[in-house]
Amino acid sequence: MNTFTTRDYAHMAIVTAIYIVLTITPPFNAIAYGAYQFRVSEMLNFLAFYHRKYLFAVTLGCMISNLYSFGMIDVFVGGGSTLLFVYLGTILFKQYQKDYLFNGLINKAFFFFSFFFAASMITVAVELKIVAGLPLLLTWLTTAVGELASLLVGAVLVDKLSRHVDFTK
């Protein structure tokens, strides 16, 4: 198993900080929590396709950001869900990373991952049902739609950015 270098830890800290800032600061915080959410920071999930260090960075960013919503339950549910589903998504869809859809607009792996990860919002919906008494299916639908929208935008942006920045290092 490879260990992380000092540079890796610095990259992880930067991505974690960016995730937190894009989630908890105004105006992003107004749309980052609850049944109707669009987390701009979720776009960073695609970095895990380039290097595993980013899996830990986005998970930690999610956990710290979730301290500002429902507290520790959200830290563990949201953080655990992020860790599990980003990890699984990269394993399932990395094989498609060189392929593109819609005349090269969107990376095929990122496209599939977006729908997979949006479906994983069932974990958030269950949490919101338990903690806030929200209806399960409607909450799953609304969180999944917001997540999907954020990820599809992020899929295009991160892929375009990766052509100029080497995220594999």
UniProtKB/TrEMBL annotation:
Transmembrane recorded as keyword: yes
UniProt KW keywords: Membrane, Transmembrane, Transmembrane helix
Superkingdom, taxonomy of origin: Bacteria
Species of the source: Streptococcus agalactiae serotype V (strain ATCC BAA-611 / 2603 V/R)
PANTHER family with a match to the protein in the record: INTEGRAL MEMBRANE PROTEIN, INTEGRAL MEMBRANE PROTEIN-RELATED
Protein name: Queuosine transporter QueT
The UniProt record lists the keyword Transmembrane helix: yes
Transmembrane intervals: 12-33, 76-93, 105-126, 138-158
